[in-house]
Amino acid sequence: MNAQLDAFDTALPECLIALPQAEQLSSFERSSLLAAAMELQRCQRALSKADMNVVGELLKGHDGFYEMNHYPDGDVYDRESHSQYYYHAHRDGGVEHGHFHTFVRAQGIPSQLQPLVVPEANEPWPSGDDAIAHLIAVSMDAWGQPIGLFACNRWVTDETWYRADAMKQLLPTFSIDHAHPSWPANLWLTALLQLFQPHIEALIEHRDQVVSAWRKAYPGQDVFEDRALEITGYLPISIESWVEALRQAADVNA
Q1: Which residues are CB-contacts of 149 (< 8 A; sequence separation ≥ 6)?
Q2: Model pTM?
Q3: What separation in angstroms does the CA of 207 have from each of 61, 135, 173, 230?
Q4: What whole-number distance in Å separates Cα of residue 177 and Cα of residue 180?
Q5: Could you tell me the residue range of the domain that residue 126 belongs to?
Q6: Distance of CA 91 to the CA centre of its chain
Q7: 146 has which bridge partners?
Q8: 94 by DSSP, 3-state: which?
Q9: Angle, nearest 10°, between helix axes 197-217 and 27-49?
């Protein structure tokens, strides 16, 4: 699937992802991201002291790890923020162990943010109280560490499609602040989305560019159900590298 995406991006260079640069962020933005990094590292430290990691917390108590199953059972939902996530795997033989899918449900989406209207849609989208916006997916390795972020097409998560400007308003609202299935794991994922907010925003903007270009390339087809377009964009991530870049930028601008 990545090969198809790379070929599409090569043919349409306007769809290349704009990588975030730490030095281009404001001092307030860098401070906020570094605060999220401290929270994330605090959660990782608490888990590592007990020889645990984020993924292990979600798989705890399950009899095996099966492709496409959601972990934990029934997903994780915060009734205050209306944020939701689950972890699963496709097992395609790569370095990825599995990935998180993160969402905001209808009750957490302000009424002024309206989904895209697509006349050529072949499938009904969740609407009303069932509306759901997919924020980003987080790819994890076998040691419970994040290795990448990716955005995907509508059919992948059966979501309600909101434009990038609406998605960027929803992104800061993601928060899982309760103890099921693991308080440190929930806080860790919340902090991760905060730390990599610039990367996620870049992927969301890129997602819309790819979809728009695909619709122009294949007029009359329902791009949102096209199985040839699955992953719209991927960025590898490193917590350590991004934190170091933020600190260096802060020092230079001090």
Answers
A1: 136, 137, 138, 139, 196, 199, 200, 203, 234, 235, 237
A2: 0.93
A3: 36, 11, 20, 11
A4: 9
A5: 2-16+24-252
A6: 19
A7: 140
A8: coil
A9: 100
Per-residue pLDDT, 34 = 98
- Interacting residues of 24 by C-beta distance below 8 A, sequence separation 6+: none
Omega cis (within 30) before 72? yes
Number of domains the chain contains: 1
Count CB neighbours of 60 within 10 A. 13
- Could you list the mean pLDDT of each consecutive 10-residue stretch along the chain, which spans 254 residues? 39 72 96 98 96 91 76 94 93 82 98 94 95 97 94 97 98 97 97 98 96 92 95 96 96 72
**Rounded Cα gap, residues 34 and 30, in angstroms:** 6
189 in Cβ contact with 54 (< 8 Å): yes
Say what the alpha-carbon torsion angle 174, 82, 136, 221 is, to the nearest 10 degrees: -140
Q: Are 153 and 176 in contact (CB under 8 A)?
A: no
Place of tokens 């925003």: 201
The CA–CA distances, whole Å, from 178 to 78, 188, 206 equal 7, 12, 32
Return the structure tokens found at 17.
């992802």
Please count the helices (runs of H) and the strands (runs of E) in the chain.
8, 6
CA angle (211, 213, 215) in 5-degree steps: 70
Tokens encoding 64? 């095996």
Looking at residue 237, what DSSP letter applies?
Answer: -
Residue 94 confidence (pLDDT): 77
Helix (H, G, I), strand (E, B) or coil at 39: helix
Contact (Cβ atoms closer than 8 angstroms) between residue 196 and residue 236: no
Partners of 86 in beta bridges = 101
